[in-house]
């Protein structure tokens, strides 16, 4: 894929993956090893080999049952969910930044995040979240899809969806859904357990994530990544404007629908298993564009890898910076993303002033 890229960009892309992929591997192993029960990498390797390979294939040293539970059922699913969520949110941000032609665009602009949050709040207050681990993420994804459908219906007139109208509708519907979630929280504040669960979920976090959450989110995020890569050319053309894209053979409205739906699927699947986590979809794709340029066939996969690295590291920080208390993951990403966002605003202000 990189053979058609300019030499300097090909070199930068190679360097990016040469750094980010080893960092992802090391951070994932470190996240599995570090915790209330420290583990060495030999134990992690033995457990993974025992689960991945038939016993007859190799002599695999046995790990204790406790180590197997910690590694395979607690920490590895959490790390994989962090990778999936980081990749999904960063890719969704890259899609929307290209579609809106604005580096400040991020996944919650289309109302999908607040819709997922409302679905999760309903799962908590009705008690349905206690019935099965899959109920909460499924209701969150349902809320995300319904919010997107409402936003798109409001923004579309005569088969045409202006991006500015879509943006305004997304902000308005998102604010309304957030207000409804807050109302439901305030009405149930007397039940402290439910209120605490809602507040913690809306602050984002990956504690108690299992293989169920991996299998619930992985197909949707994989589908979103695949579709976004197939539509990389259309995103490049959208950077030149909708009229230019149409003149070059792009079915503008159909492409916009598919790209927005793809971003919504990525966002909804991510929020459904991790709660509300901000700034990943804002800072990662923008940082990738600064390093690798605007070509989406490069930006999209690089954003996915960068998002996975960023969220695994943030989750590791959330678990270890103040033990035994775990800081909410959304707080950590906001503390990392807030200064970057302010720097981005100041940079854009200087560009406009010049």
Characterization of this structure:
- The protein has 354 residues and is mainly α.
- The chain has a single domain (2-353), classed as ABC transporter involved in vitamin B12 uptake, BtuC (Orthogonal Bundle), CATH 1.10.3470.
- 75% of the residues lie in helices and 0% in strands.
- It is built from 14 helices and no strands.
- The longest helix has 36 residues, at 65-100.
List keywords for this structure.
single chain; 354 residues; mainly alpha; ABC transporter involved in vitamin B12 uptake, BtuC; 75% helix
Structural class: mainly alpha
**CATH architecture classification:** Orthogonal Bundle
Q: Quickly count the helices.
A: 14
Beta-strand fraction estimate: under 5%
Biggest sheet architecture = none
Gyration radius, to the nearest Å?
21 Å
Cα separation of the termini = 37 Å
From the spread of the alpha carbons, the general shape counts as globular
- Total count of domains: 1
The CATH homologous superfamily: ABC transporter involved in vitamin B12 uptake, BtuC
> For this structure, what is the CATH class?
Mainly Alpha
Order of helices and strands: HHHHHHHHHHHHHH
| Multimeric state | single chain
| Helix proportion | over 70%
Question: Strand tally, please?
Answer: 0
């Amino acid at each position: 894929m990189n053979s058609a890229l300019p030499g300097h960009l090909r070199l930068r892309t190679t360097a990016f993956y040469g750094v980010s992929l080893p960092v992802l591997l090391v951070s994932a192993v470190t996240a599995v090893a570090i915790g209330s029960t420290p583990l060495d990498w030999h134990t992690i390797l033995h457990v993974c080999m025992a689960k991945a390979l038939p016993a007859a294939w190799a002599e695999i040293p046995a790990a204790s049952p406790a180590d197997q539970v910690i590694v395979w059922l607690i920490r590895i699913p959490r790390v994989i969910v962090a990778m999936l969520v980081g990749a999904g949110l960063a890719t969704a941000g890259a899609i929307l930044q290209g579609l809106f032609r604005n580096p400040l665009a991020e996944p919650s602009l289309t109302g999908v995040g607040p819709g997922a949050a409302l679905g999760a709040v309903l799962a908590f207050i009705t008690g349905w979240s206690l019935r099965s681990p899959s109920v909460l993420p499924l209701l969150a994804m349902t809320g995300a899809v319904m919010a997107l459908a409402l936003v798109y219906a409001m923004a579309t007139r005569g088969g045409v969806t202006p991006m500015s109208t879509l943006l305004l509708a997304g902000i308005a519907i998102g604010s309304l859904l957030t207000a409804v979630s807050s109302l439901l929280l305030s009405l149930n504040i007397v039940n402290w357990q439910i209120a605490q669960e809602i507040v913690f979920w809306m602050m984002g976090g990956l504690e108690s994530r299992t293989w169920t959450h991996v299998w619930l989110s992985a197909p949707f995020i994989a589908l979103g990544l695949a579709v976004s890569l197939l539509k990389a050319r259309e995103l490049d053309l959208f950077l030149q404007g909708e009229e230019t894209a149409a003149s070059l053979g792009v079915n503008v409205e159909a492409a916009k629908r598919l790209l927005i739906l793809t971003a919504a699927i990525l966002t909804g699947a991510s929020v459904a298993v991790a709660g509300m986590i901000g700034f990943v979809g804002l800072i990662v794709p923008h940082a990738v564009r600064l390093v690798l340029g605007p070509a989406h066939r490069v930006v999209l996969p690089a954003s996915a890898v960068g998002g996975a690295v960023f969220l695994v590291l943030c989750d590791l920080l959330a678990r270890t910076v103040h033990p035994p208390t775990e800081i909410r993951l959304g707080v950590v990403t906001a503390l990392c993303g807030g200064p970057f966002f302010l720097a981005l605003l100041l940079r854009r202000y200087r560009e406009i002033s010049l």
